[in-house]
Amino acid sequence: MNVYRVLIVEDHPFQHQYLANIFLATGGFEVELVWDGASALNRLSHNRYDLLLTDLMMPQMDGVQLIQQIAQLHRPPALALMTAASRRMLIGSAQAAKNLGLHVVGLISKPVRADEIVSLRKNLDLHIAEQVCGYGRQTRGCRSRATLIKALENEEIQAWFQPKKSLRDGGIVGAEALARWAHPIEGVLMPGDFLNDVEKAQLEIELLGSMLAQTLHAQAQWTKMGHPLPVSINLPTHLLDRGDLVDNLLRQVLASQADPRLITFELTESSTTRFSSDYYAGACRLRLMGFGLAQDDFGKGYSSYFNLVSTPFTELKIDRSLVSGCSDNEGQAAALLSITDLGRKLGLITVAEGAETQSELGVLRRIHCDLVQGFIISPAVARDDLAALLKIDGTGPALL
């Protein structure tokens, strides 16, 4: 069992002793405690820790200020936050930490329970394992354009498919195409390992074309099995600046004798068009050609209600940040209910991303969300593996 070095920042004497005891009882930790943020920064500048657990409400330097300071360290530890304040305060502070590049492994509402410390151990185990697995890999931003072009030409960068299931009958009713790089040396790479490089190399059009081609091929195979499955594909919004994009996409689909109605393009929030007119023109033309159109990651970042009601979307995808933990957070559950109600009134199919537990599925069923995708259903799988899932789908999964 790994032994983790933990630094705890807590200004209450009773909590000092209580936290020391609960970590000791859990086992696998070497614990040091300090009273304030300044002392924590001093320790962190001279020693290496695996985890920093800090209260948010502290005098002089509060927990959020401490987060901002440790983000500037060369090798910051993993972070866990605790507070007696609202759960929303924890979530907001965690978002600040994540946006600063810190790895958050726990959000704890006081009083701290023993099972939450056990969960911290498990999350640290996963975090350390990810670091070990990634050791020795080429760092992000280092893939040459020539390497990426070769990977695209050889179809090393593949379309894998994450199924979408109906929350009414449990059947697979669609899928999302997600990029995976089957690297000949490094193994299967996730999008975070190469998508930024694709963007920097200005190869997003080529990647989109490849994902569409592989999707059309997969759909043809599934249709022969009796499953004409709709598939959604991510489309970086700034590509709508290209006046020929929609025509080229339609030409590619028709050349495969496929139906545009079985393809939905998900507009991502990571970018925007230079001119709003390009956005609306591109979105409307996609719909005029028969393609579906989804607002991706709604509830994250800067999703606009005006944008939602003024764009001819057919689908509303609820971001995983609102789905994860919704069964334990009344505020999140209320937000989900509001979004699904809005989607229904606008005539949109609502899709919840990132469901991982039975209790989260229960919330999504209760609020009448239409579709769900997430690890509890299935991760993204290769084309043939999804075909195998479609063959057994008629039996109806027990979890739904």
From TrEMBL:
Protein keywords: Phosphoprotein
Positions of modified residues (4-aspartylphosphate): 55
One MF annotation (Gene Ontology) recorded for this entry: cyclic-guanylate-specific phosphodiesterase activity
Alphabetical list of Pfam families matching this protein: EAL, Response_reg
Residue stretches making up the Response regulatory domain: 5-125
SMART domains in alphabetical order: EAL, REC
A GO biological-process term: phosphorelay signal transduction system
Domain EAL as annotated: residue spans: 141-394
Gene3D superfamilies: 3.40.50.2300, EAL domain
Record carries keyword Phosphoprotein: yes
Metal-binding is among the record's keywords: no
InterPro entries recorded: CheY-like_superfamily, Cyclic-di-GMP_PDE-like, EAL_dom, EAL_sf, Sig_transdc_resp-reg_receiver
Protein name: EAL domain-containing protein
Organism annotation: Pseudomonas parafulva
